[in-house]
């Protein structure tokens, strides 16, 4: 996969974060985080209609570990990380977990401003440290995800969808880079609006690599990166597939896709 749009250092950092998350996830016991139950709301993601229990001690430990990794990669961050660590009393840790689950980027921007640390830093750490918990939830509910109808967003965690893989005989499975949920989608159907009018769906292949495609829908103006992982890219997690295919997002967005239709026409 062409990765000239992202630097080697960036990719190495993302890989390290992904590996840390795998290690963390092994320490989690599903029954302490989520109770398997019948989902009653079809249009609401799992985490918004169940109670996800975050062990705040563990969450805080991972926030610290991630901070240490970032300092190791970029020693200039040492003071910012020190400030963040000092601020994380029990109340603040709880708030971080709540706000990151609610995608409240504004909260973290304000936090960064008040703590006088790099703007991007608190949200990145808060988000990556919560992901192992979300991945346990998606695993527990994996059989139920395709029945939910959270169009355009992940039925488990609510993240906007943008990535699918082709498996087996060519089944299109949508994967979430955030919670690693995976569910099947009809091959010729827009994953965001459900449009099945083939004339309004187009597929672009990218460069010389037949394994990479962009699906675009003229009905709702969304796009989906489709990666055939049957020969290549097998070992990459959904998160790393997403990072490695950022150039597809750029191509799709340059063509004007990814912005909801109402916003384009207004
Ligand atoms: Zn998700
Ligand atoms: Zn669509």
UniProtKB/TrEMBL annotation:
<dbReference type="GO" id="GO:0005829">
    <property type="term" value="C:cytosol"/>
</dbReference>
<protein>
    <recommendedName>
        <fullName>FdhE C-terminal domain-containing protein</fullName>
    </recommendedName>
</protein>
<dbReference type="Pfam" id="PF24860">
    <property type="entry name" value="FdhE_C"/>
</dbReference>
<dbReference type="InterPro" id="IPR024064">
    <property type="entry name" value="FdhE-like_sf"/>
</dbReference>
<keyword id="KW-0963">Cytoplasm</keyword>
<dbReference type="GO" id="GO:0051604">
    <property type="term" value="P:protein maturation"/>
</dbReference>
<dbReference type="InterPro" id="IPR006452">
    <property type="entry name" value="Formate_DH_accessory"/>
</dbReference>
<feature type="domain" description="FdhE C-terminal">
    <location>
        <begin position="189"/>
        <end position="257"/>
    </location>
</feature>
<dbReference type="InterPro" id="IPR056796">
    <property type="entry name" value="FdhE_C"/>
</dbReference>
<dbReference type="GO" id="GO:0008199">
    <property type="term" value="F:ferric iron binding"/>
</dbReference>
């Amino acid at each position: 996969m062409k990765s000239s749009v992202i630097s080697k250092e960036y990719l190495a950092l993302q890989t390290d974060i992904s590996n840390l998350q795998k290690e963390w996830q092994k320490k989690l016991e599903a029954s302490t985080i989520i109770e398997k139950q019948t989902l009653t709301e079809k249009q609401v993601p799992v985490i918004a209609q169940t109670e996800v229990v975050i062990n705040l001690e563990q969450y805080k430990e991972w926030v610290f570990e991630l901070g240490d990794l970032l300092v190791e990669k970029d020693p200039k961050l040492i003071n910012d990380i020190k400030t963040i660590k000092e601020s994380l009393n029990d109340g603040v840790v709880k708030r971080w977990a709540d706000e990151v689950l609610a995608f409240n980027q504004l909260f973290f921007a304000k936090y960064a401003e008040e703590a006088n640390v790099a703007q991007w830093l608190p949200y990145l750490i808060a988000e990556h440290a919560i992901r192992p918990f979300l991945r346990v939830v998606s695993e527990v509910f994996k059989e139920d995800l395709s029945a939910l109808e959270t169009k355009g967003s992940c039925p488990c965690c609510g993240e906007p969808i943008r990535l699918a893989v082709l498996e087996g005989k060519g089944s299109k499975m949508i994967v979430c880079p955030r919670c690693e949920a995976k569910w099947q989608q009809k091959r010729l159907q827009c994953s965001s609006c459900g449009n099945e009018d083939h004339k309004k769906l187009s597929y672009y292949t990218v460069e010389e690599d037949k394994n990479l495609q962009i699906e675009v829908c003229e009905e709702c103006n969304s796009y989906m990166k489709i990666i055939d992982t049957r020969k290549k890219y097998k070992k990459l997690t959904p998160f790393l597939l997403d990072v490695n295919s950022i150039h597809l997002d750029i191509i799709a967005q340059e063509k004007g896709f990814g912005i909801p239709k109402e916003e384009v026409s207004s």
